Structures are given as structure tokens and as C-alpha cells.
Structure of FAD-binding PCMH-type domain-containing protein:
Amino acid sequence: MPAHLLWLSSMHLSSYFTFATAIAIFFSFETSPRDPHQNFVQCLYNYPNITNSISNVVYTQTNSSYSYVLDLTIQNRRFSNSSSKPLVIVTPLDVTQILATIICSQRHGLQIRTRSGGHDYEGLSYVAEVPFVLLDLSNLQQIAVDEESRTAWVQSGATLGELYYRISQKSKTLGFPAGVCASVGIGGHFSGGGYGLMMRKYGTAADNVIDAHIIDVNGNLLDRQAMGEDLFWAIRGGGGASFGVIVDWKVKLVPVPSTVTVFNVSRTLEENATEIIQKWQLVANKLDERIMIRVDISRVNSSQHGKLTIQASFVSLFLGGVEDLIPLMQNSLPELGLDRNDCKETSWIGSAVFINAVLIGTSGNEPPETMLNRTQIYLGKGKGKSDYVSQPIPVEGLQGLWRLLYDAKVENFQLQFAPYGGRMYEISESEISFPHRSGYIYHIHYGVIWQEEGDEIAQRHMNFIRKVYKYMEPYVSNSPRAAYVNYRDLDIGVNNNGYTSYTQAKIWGLKYFNNNFKRLARVKTKVDPDNFFRNEQSIPTLSIEEN
Ligand SMILES: Cc1cc2nc3c(=O)[nH]c(=O)nc-3n(C[C@H](O)[C@H](O)[C@H](O)COP(=O)(O)OP(=O)(O)OC[C@H]3O[C@@H](n4cnc5c(N)ncnc54)[C@H](O)[C@@H]3O)c2cc1C
Ligand SMILES: *[C@@H]1O[C@H](CO)[C@@H](O)[C@H](O)[C@H]1NC(C)=O
Ligand SMILES: *[C@@H]1O[C@H](CO)[C@@H](O)[C@H](O)[C@H]1NC(C)=O
Ligand SMILES: *[C@@H]1O[C@H](CO)[C@@H](O)[C@H](O)[C@H]1NC(C)=O
Ligand SMILES: *[C@@H]1O[C@H](CO)[C@@H](O)[C@H](O)[C@H]1NC(C)=O
Ligand SMILES: *[C@@H]1O[C@H](CO)[C@@H](O)[C@H](O)[C@H]1NC(C)=O
Ligand SMILES: *[C@@H]1O[C@H](CO)[C@@H](O)[C@H](O)[C@H]1NC(C)=O
Ligand SMILES: *[C@@H]1O[C@H](CO)[C@@H](O)[C@H](O)[C@H]1NC(C)=O
């Protein structure tokens, strides 16, 4: 039996949970003068039939390792000094510890924030204004690749880099279409959609999920069949945090050639960047599905001209060799002037190393093992936003954007244009809960990063990214102005204390989920009617009139 099944089958679930819940209710009647979090910890310690000793994975604020464990995957340093810290951190080793955390939190009036890789742009996986428990899944990192059936089971606390590496250890001709950053966690990424440079060929990560295990608000462990198609639909794009805790995912691996080609070619305004981007807007979504060319735009000091300029980096993965790539580029985007020497032929895992290197600023020649490195790359404090583009931005629009970037009083601001087309157009809006499909030429990611301390500096950076977002309004999708939930942005609207009516939540909900928002709210109402799993942008429950 595969390891992941062994690990689950050691429990006989349905009878067990009824019993466990009964015991938990019993414990809640103990008379005790302690704080809620002490009662919570006691509830965990007394919880019946926990497989591993739970006291080894419980950190209260007085534990000397508390800060270390909390900081380990705070990927956005904007939230490092937050005063809204968890009362208790639990780093479960198995599902019994997760379910005990869910049940005991409810008994003792604490909320839960679930963290897998900690990359949430607004820190929602580890910051809350209410008394809460941090359920950190970073110990759940198992990955079981079955090359024969071309599937893998991957636990939520694993990273994208680990998944890619494990696949490459089993096969040189299998891959998985997900994000570019190796340290991103599976749990948040898959549940919000998840995409990288194979999106045009194979869609999002969530499109390739075929099963999952979730623990719901009652402590039930459910696979796809047991959770039903509605909930399984919801956790593929709707974000996981509103519905329960997803333990692991079964994915379909995809075929990749043994040799692929990557490039990262930059052009400044003096080198016709504007013209190339104009042409790119007309062709990028129509190219052969095997190629995806992302454009990374930022202000730089031009080495040739010794002054500020705008630089566009064309970052690309082609699922084939350079011999096929060069004529393809000459036909479709000759303006870029791509040369054979700009290209690097490599294995699929080599391409993942390269594309991650473009992001984190390393050379791209590191060995595949670099994908396993969980050591935090110091990215500093950040703020991100997103948009979708349906019509090419006219040249005046681009030039106005360049002027804004020239005048920016921030150093590290970047836009990324990621083209759609191919598989993304073939999947309907309602197939899974991730909605953004046909009709878009490309997706925009805005990001600003800074290192300095202080509110004023933070405000300057946040104001700048908001100014650019405001400037872009006429050029991007509207009614709703679509946004990507994995690039979480609290500027577009927040729930009031987690309790917001569906009608109020539509302000941000339609942007993330468009026509899928109502169905997400229906699923939420069914699986978590009392709204235990909530945060600033969790899916609301529906009132009787709204349903
Ligand atoms: C440097 C960087 C690069 C990125 N690159 C890409 C990219 O190339 N493509 C792309 O699509 N996105 C990208 N992202 C965005 C990324 O996909 C999201 O931030 C994603 O949600 C991160 O998942 P996580 O597990 O690391 O985050 P977390 O902060 O742990 O979680 C994010 C959200 O999901 C919830 N959640 C996490 N795990 C679970 C679970 N097991 N069950 C239920 N709910 C859960 C959390 O509570 C939180 O609400 C990037 C982000 C960063 C910071
Ligand atoms: C819990 O563990 C005890 C002791 O091992 C065992 O007797 C009991 O059957 C278990 N309960 C369930 C529901 O599995
Ligand atoms: C802190 O937690 C660790 C791991 O759970 C445990 O080994 C240690 O004894 C705890 N320390 C304190 C001071 O409670
Ligand atoms: C935030 O934390 C950093 C280091 O962790 C510290 O140097 C800095 O002074 C803190 N800033 C504030 C505003 O507390
Ligand atoms: C820019 O475009 C012009 C006109 O198309 C062309 O003559 C020139 O060589 C290009 N410059 C670069 C650096 O590619
Ligand atoms: C450009 O150069 C100036 C002066 O050398 C420096 O202060 C600034 O940080 C540089 N800007 C960028 C975007 O590299
Ligand atoms: C990608 O191009 C940019 C701009 O020229 C450069 O700074 C960076 O080092 C390159 N990264 C890789 C991995 O090639
Ligand atoms: C992992 O990454 C960190 C941060 O970039 C680096 O300092 C460290 O050397 C890397 N470790 C290995 C084993 O590559």
C-alpha cells in the first residue's frame, strides 16, 4: 500500500470521530479558572487517541521556541512585528492532531489560522485581530510520486520546489504546472488556483488536482468522494481557509519533453521595449501552447546610458528544443530579436531552477537540490495587487505607466504580465472555482518590496502601488475589476470581523471569484454554517433570503 494510504488507514474514521467528539464535550465541562488558551492546551493534552505525543508540537507564548516557530515561514516581513500573534502554535505531525486542534479551538472560543507555506500577501495565515491558534502544517511534507499512474499525493506543508524535485527524481518526462517560486506552500497555492509558465499548456495547479483530504469543522476527514463534488469544486480556486483544513492533494502529473528551453532577455526603452510589448500584447495569448513568455517590467539604471530607464525582461519556458523555438519566435515575435545564445536548453527541473532564480535573483545554474532549500530568502516587506487585461493597452497607456515608474519614490517596484490562451481558454469559468479564463489576454501582478523599518516608509510604498493600480483602471477588466485570490489584497474589501453578509462581501468576492462567488457561498453555508473558519476575506455564509 502506498505510504500515504497507510498513514490514513491507521484510523477507522467514522466511529472514531463520534467517540472523539463525545470525549471533547465531556472535557469542556471540567471546571477550570484558566485562560481560554490554557483550557485549549489542556483539551489537546487530554484528547483521546492522538497518534503522536501532542505536547511536543504545542507552543504557547512562554515557550522559548515560540518566536522561532512563528517566524519560520512569515514570508512577508511587513507582518513580522505584528502585535496580533497567535496564543498557541500547533505544528501537527498527523491528522489526529489537526482534528484535535479544530475541535478544541471551538470548545474554547479560539479561532484558527491555517498556514502551509506562509506566503499569503496579507499575512492572513498567521496574523489575526482575535484570539487565535496558528495551525502550522510545515511538518506535513510527504510527497509520494507514482510514475506509473502519473499521479502524486502531496501534503499541504510541502513546497512547490519539493514537489518538482521529487517528480524529477522519478521521471525526466513528467512535470507539474504550478507556480514559479520554490518556497511557496502547496496548501495555499493549490486552493487558490496556482500558476506558472506551463499554464498555457496545462492550466492551473488546481485544474490538475484529482483528489484531496480535508478535515471539516466537525473533525471529519473526507476524501473527494466523502466531501462531495461541491466542496471538492470549492477548494480548487476558492481558497482553502473558508472550508476546513486540507491535509493533502492527489495530482495528475503532466508529460514534459526531456529537453526544454528557457530564456530571460531584457530590453530597455532605448532598445524598443515599448514596441516589443505592443507586439507581445497582440500575440502572446495566441502563440503555440508550448511557449509562455512573461514580461517583468521595472525601472533600472541603464548601464549603457547611465540614466534611469524602464526595462522589460522577457522570461520564457518553451516545452521543446532551441531548434524549434528560434523559427517560432522569428515568426511570431521577431521584434524581440531572440538569439540562440540567449537560450538555455535544460531538463524540466533545470527550467524550474532557472525560473525560480529569475525571481530570487540567483544565477540559475544551481543544482536541482536548490529546490529543496526552505531557508527563507529574505524578500523583505511587500505589498502585491493584481489585474486582468482584455484589450491591448494602447501605447499612450504604456507611456503614462512609464512616467509613473520614472517618478516613483520607491526602488523595488515591478509589474509582471503573464499571458493567457491555450488551455486556459479551453476550461470553462465554472469548471472549478478558480474563475478567470477566456476573454483575458494576460494577467498583471504588481509588487513592491522594501527593507527599511517604519510606518512612513511603509506608507510611501503602499501609496505608490495603489497609485499605479488607480492609474491602470481604464486599461484593465471592469465590473468586476478581476483579481487573483492568491495575490491577496485587502484593499479591495474586507469582512467585518469575519462576519459580513454575502451582499456586502460581493464587493471583493466578485473580483476574486466572479460568477462562482454565489456557489462558493452556498458550499460554505452547507459545510461550515456557523462560520468557524473565517478571516478578513473568507467566503460568507448565506442567509435564508440570500440562498
Ligand atoms: C514570493 C512569492 C512568489 C509567488 N509566486 C506565485 C506564482 O508563481 N504563481 C502563483 O499562482 N502564485 C504565486 N504566489 C502566490 C501564492 O500562490 C499564494 O500566496 C499562496 O496562497 C501561498 O500558499 P502558502 O501555503 O505558501 O501560503 P499560506 O500563507 O500558508 O496560506 C495562504 C492562504 O491559504 C490558507 N491555507 C493554507 N494552507 C491551507 C490548508 N492546508 N487548508 C486550508 N487553508 C489553507 C491560509 O489560511 C491562507 O488563507 C507567490 C507568492 C510569493 C510570496
Ligand atoms: C481509542 O484508543 C483506545 C485505547 O487504545 C481503544 O481502546 C479505543 O478503541 C480507541 N477508540 C476508537 C474509537 O478508536
Ligand atoms: C517548548 O516546546 C517544545 C516543543 O514542543 C518542548 O520540547 C519544550 O519543552 C517547550 N518548552 C517550554 C519552555 O515549554
Ligand atoms: C521590527 O523588527 C525588527 C527586527 O525583527 C526590528 O529591528 C525593528 O526595530 C522592529 N520595528 C518596530 C517598528 O518595532
Ligand atoms: C528599434 O527599432 C527600430 C525601428 O524598428 C530599429 O531600426 C532599431 O534597430 C531597433 N533598435 C534595437 C536596439 O533593437
Ligand atoms: C540608480 O543609481 C542611483 C545612484 O547611483 C542609486 O541611488 C539608485 O539606487 C539606483 N536605482 C536603481 C533602480 O537601481
Ligand atoms: C534575468 O534578467 C535580468 C535583467 O537582465 C538579470 O538582472 C537577471 O540576473 C537575469 N536572471 C537570470 C536567472 O538569468
Ligand atoms: C539555502 O538558501 C539560503 C538563502 O538563500 C542560503 O544562504 C543557503 O546557503 C542555501 N542552502 C543550501 C544548502 O543551498
